Amino acid sequence: MADRIAGDGFRKSSTHPTRYNRIHSFYIFEKKRLGYPRSEPYATGKWADYRRWLDALVTFSADQLNDVRQRTIDFVLAELEAVVFDPASVRIEPPIFKELLESFDFRARAVREPTGAAFQAMVFGFIRADAPHLQVEARKVRTGGARLQGVGDIDAWEGDRLVITAEVKHFQFSEDNVSALEHFSHEVNQRAAMGLIVAEAFGPNAREKIVALGLRPLSLADVLNIVSLWDPLKQRAALNAFQWVVSHKEQSPGLISRLDKFLVETGYKPASEPKTEDAAGET
């Protein structure tokens, strides 16, 4: 009887074998009426209270049953609002920091742009976004942490406790370079901090020797793998930190211009409109 009342929309399926579940699936999953009652034991247990209705339905003709079925469907659909997700409501943000790692030319240099400035700013952005609970210090490239009472090129603190410190090496770090890390390794291990050696890449045996010093090697490819798992908001936070260092620490007009051009070319920001002169010749 219930099958006849339900009609084609409620035909039996292997996924929902019971009558109630077929109707339940029709309203909730097909028609998106998420407010439809979901308590099967309670609903089916109440069927006995409506025996007179069920007995009356037995006397109905096929046309009358079809009419009852349609009226029932129309009533439920009118009473319950459809909950439908609108894809147009989603603002799609690009994985901008990932795009920066993949496409920005860290080796290129504008006039008077310090060597390695962009790469060190990238490492700051990475640490700042990945550890927002820490106070991260940024320094100009080649300033040196010890000169400013720091430990590495980039330090991240919890109060007065050093938690993360990074030495930035914008080149392929070879086994021969490891000996220069002894002082840094001593400071890191003494403070029980996480010491990072962030380089473009690592030569044979270099990673193993860095790890033996109690440090952690991160290549540009390693950073990219981590950033690939970040959501767009975290990516944007990393880019903002990168931009802050470029604009307020390095203050290199050439690097600022290169970054601005990159962001325009990727479609992340609109191109600046050129200034025009008014009738009086003023801009």
Number of helical segments with 4 or more residues: 12
CATH class of the largest domain: Alpha Beta
Question: N-to-C SSE series?
Answer: HHHHHHHEEEHEHEHHH
Number of strands: 5
Would you write up a description of this structure?
The chain is α/β, with parallel strands linked by helices and 283 residues long. It has two domains: 2-79, no CATH class; 96-265, Trna Endonuclease, Chain: A, domain 1 (3-Layer(aba) Sandwich). 45% of the residues lie in helices and 12% in strands. A five-stranded mixed beta sheet has the order 1-2-3-4-5, sandwiched between helices. Strand 2 and strand 3 (161-173) form a beta hairpin. The longest helix is centred in the last third of the chain and has 19 residues, at 232-250. It starts with a helix and ends in an 18-residue tail after the last helix. Residues 1-17 and 277-283 have low confidence and may be disordered.
Which keywords apply here?
2 domains, Trna Endonuclease, Chain: A, domain 1, 5 strands, alpha/beta, 12% strand, five-stranded mixed sheet, elongated, 283 residues
Which helices and strands appear, and what pairs or packs with what?
Layout: H1 2-6, H2 19-30, H3 40-45, H4 51-58, H5 62-79, H6 96-103, H7 117-130, E1 135-137, E2 154-158, E3 161-173, H8 182-191, E4 194-202, H9 206-212, E5 216-219, H10 220-227, H11 232-250, H12 253-265
Parallel strand pairs: 3-4, 4-5
Antiparallel strand pairs: 1-2, 2-3
Helix pairs in contact: 6-10, 6-11, 7-11
Short description:
With 283 residues, this protein is α/β, with parallel strands linked by helices. The chain is 45% helix and 12% strand.
